[in-house]
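Why do we care about 3D structure at all? Because function follows from shape, and shape follows, mostly, from sequence. That is the central idea of this module. The next example makes it concrete: a single protein chain, its amino acid sequence, and then its structure expressed as tokens.
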Amino acid sequence: MSQIQRLWTEFRLPIRDALYFADGHSYDVVLASDAPGGWKVLAPFDVSDMLARGPDWTSSVDGLISVELGQGGLWGGDGSYGSEGFVARLAPDRSLIWAIFFMESNPFEEIQLLGEVATFTSTSGTKVAVDINLRNPTPSIN
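And the structure:
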């Protein structure tokens, strides 16, 4: 079980603008209104190294909105602090497939699904669109 899977069993995610996959792969991300989905994938990083330096640097997450997909679902909500938000894709048993955590998005309270793309909207109006089958992202160069 990866570090991120262990955290998810406690409904926790690292406090970092990042995309986390259940297999342990993690990428820095940034909200970017000029990007097609409202966010960009940056460089990969090792979440285990990050947590070794700051094991308590995690946030409790709580779902505010969900959409069932038949084979799992989508979940969005908030973190421990008012400015945090997260979006996630879950397996049928509610285990994590992927999650994206933002420190300054505010909680996500709405999900619109159009085909394979989910658009999550936060209480501050921040919108991020994500391919629900997200795999192996290509980091942005700029």
